[in-house]
Predict the 3D structure of the following.
Amino acid sequence: MTRVQLLTDATTQPLRDQVPDGCALVIFGASGDLTRRKLVPALYALAHDGLLPGRFVAVGLARREKSHQVFRDEMRAAVDQFSRLRPLKPEVWDRLAQRLYYVSASFDDAAGYERLRAFLVDADREHGTAGNRIFYLATPPVAYASIVDRLGAAGLVSDAWDGPRGGDATGKGQGWSRIIIEKPFGRDLSTARALNADTHKVFRERQVYRIDHYLGKETVQNILTFRFGNSIFEPLWNRRYVDHVQLLVSEDLGVEGRGEYYDTAGAVRDMVQNHMLQLLSLVAMEPPATFEPDAVRDEKVKVLRAIRPVDLTRAGSVTIRAQYVSGSQGGRKIPTYADEPGVAEGTATETYAALRLEIDNWRWAGVPFYLRTGKALPKRVTEVAIQYRQPPLLLFAHAEHPRHEERDVIEPNRLTLRIQPDEGISLRVGLKPPGPRISLVPARLGFVYRDTFGVDPAEAYERLLLDCMLGDSTLFIRRDEVETAWALVTPVLEAWAAAGRSGLASYPAGSWGPTEADRFIQADGREWVNP
Ligand SMILES: NC(=O)c1ccc[n+]([C@@H]2O[C@H](COP(=O)([O-])OP(=O)(O)OC[C@H]3O[C@@H](n4cnc5c(N)ncnc54)[C@H](OP(=O)(O)O)[C@@H]3O)[C@@H](O)[C@H]2O)c1
């Protein structure tokens, strides 16, 4: 593939040229998987890059009793195992470890919040965190509403989303308070609305940071810079030139011991409602007037609102759901989903979903967006493929085609945004090969993130934690976005729940999904783009 060369020496830049105000980060659920895999390694990376404020503490909170030192030792082991910046640098770790603390409390125990308040008052005094607080809910979702309620009742939340600075001795402080809420945000429209209402009893919307870690990925943000920082693509980004768009989020693993959780979720709740609709909104939105948080999110929500409700009478031609049965993937045997531990007997939970969505606006009318996601597929890939129309006249009757010797169509241009892994962008074009004959072969122009910038992209959580400390909510989901996304998928989920296993297809683990899904897109005269 042709490599993109940078025309500047600046191959890497710090994540931000700003360092945030001093603050305390309170992690609820600090003995959990997310904390050790992502959050503390992200704090370490920020410390490594000099992006943490000088006045900073992180305090983990969970039920198990342990000392600050035991928590620090556990987190050091986690950074050793999961950081992208290994081997760990002891001097960087030691600086961070001095600001890591642990408070043992149950989420429903009022005395625990009093201990937390006392801790934060001390931290303001000793570390100069000035009453500024971020509460991170890395907990089971059932706990979100009660933690918010208890934080409010304990007077731990100020009503400022940003400055003025300076804490006071009560622990309520005069600083700002922000809350980061993990996914899943609700499990349907009514539970998402209820959680929003509960959250708003204590926090104002400007203080609420609903996380979708996809938005923290460099390659996802690159969708916006690619679209709106170059003038040659945007004029072609519409119904006149685009035939259709495919979004694929495939996972190569099965449920891997998480059957109990996954069986209550399924592919639409796990991937479509959040990550895939977020990707779609970035690909399809109109240019925002500015890059301010609300200007960007206004455009995202507008496009989500323009998606036509799924026609439930046409299940099978606009939606496909399926479950994997045993098969092999990369030489490993994957058992049938329904036989996995924790999965309910007779389960109808989809491990694969494909949806055909239409956006009813001037830019996209008539251009289908195909969303496809599944577990136990051949590869772990997230990508967006924008397929352009055929040229209006086929001058090259002898076009060569990789799968057919010769045929009277040519491979249309396709722009592929590779979100992960192998991050990059490629554009398929037709070129004349050497020789006397005029013919056409498909070739790829491409940009590979790692080759061009010489580094791997930073982890999404680094960017998102930093943005929250800086008070920048551009890459977080606003209330209306989350509710609009749920409003779109909830009727589909309800119809599927009512139908049970009727209409549920199956596919062997290690394949690209059920044959029903191939027929579904072939009926539109198109094919899946399998990486
Ligand atoms: N793991 C990931 O990579 C990932 C990715 C994206 C989103 N998320 C989301 O992040 C959240 C956390 O996920 P996770 O995988 O880290 O969960 P997890 O491993 O089950 O951890 C849950 C944490 O909550 C604590 N906890 C549970 N009930 C408690 C209670 N009543 N009082 C005090 N502490 C309690 C547990 O501590 P003790 O058991 O020690 O009390 C543990 O620290 C979930 O909403 C998940 O959907 C996770």
About this structure: The pocket of NAP is lined by residues 29-34, 37-38, 62-64, 106-107, 138-141, 143, 182-184 (CB under 6 Å). Residues 215-387+471-522 form a domain with the Dihydrodipicolinate Reductase; domain 2 fold (CATH 3.30.360.10). The two ends are 15 Å apart (CA to CA). The CA atoms of residues 145 and 195 lie 6 Å apart.
